[in-house]
Amino acid sequence: MGKKCDYLTGGREGAVEIYCELGIIKEVLKHLANVRYAHRTRLIFGLVYNNKYNRDRYQSYGDHITAMKWKGGLNVRLYCTVEVEGKRKRVIIAKYPEKKTQKVDKKAEALIEAIKRTDYECINPSP
Known about the structure:
The chain is an alpha/beta fold. The protein has 3 helices and 7 strands; from the N terminus they run E-E-H-H-E-E-E-E-H-E. Strands 3-4-5-6-2-1-7 form a 7-stranded mixed β-sheet.
């Protein structure tokens, strides 16, 4: 049994679903609800839904690990794991670290490795 995560939102026709690990869901929802960064949030989710990557907004780190990035004034990264089953893709927001620099430092590398070793259980599947 892995860490539990809950459904947040899905893309068109349920092809892409976004979940969040329960231990960080309050902080993530607070961030996503910030009106000041709504445009960036829509842009990032659009990239996720369309399976596109952009080094500045939604970057792949290989081995099914990605990061959603809000740069400029707010340097937030949401580290995710990606599960693919047939045509369905599940993006699970797994870590919400305090981030002071833009480069991937040793702390970020350790987070990425921890995500790789963790199993996630989605308790509320998409509607």
